[in-house]
Design a protein that fits this description.
Helix content is 25%, strand content 29%. The chain is an alpha/beta fold. It folds into two domains: 31 residues; 97 residues. A hairpin with a 2-residue loop joins strand 2 and strand 3.
Length: 158
Amino acid sequence: MLGSAERTELWVGAAVLAVAAGFLLWSTGGGVRQGSDAYELRAAFPNVDGIDKGTDVRVAGVKVGRVSAVTLDPQSFLAEARISLPGTIRMPVDSAALIQSDGLLGGSYIELQPGGAAENLNPGDEIEDVQGAVSLLSLMMKFVDAQAGDKPAAGGQQ
């Protein structure tokens, strides 16, 4: 028979294992279930900085899918992202795909903005309205250049 101290250690160990299994499930995207009814859409971006296989796809801030692949189109030199969505979420043909950021230090994700068309995209269709990743560094450099251009020359009259 186990003593009370051993029984307590057993329960604490089981709780630690359950929490670890929960974190593992959460980190592998266990919250988004995509069964056999999942389908893919395509979106060609000029810049997919921060987007890779497994990146979240969100609608209205809610995670609904994942990026299943990112490839370069050798003809257009655009980065094509394949987006996997569950069959329960059907996007209108005039929907938009934007690459967003979770803040200054957060990761990137693809935000789908549903359009208002009555017709939906079919599996394998391409989302035409896209906005690529915006480089924060290039925006800051443009701001610094603009500020430097506004200053009067040294020794000049004002």
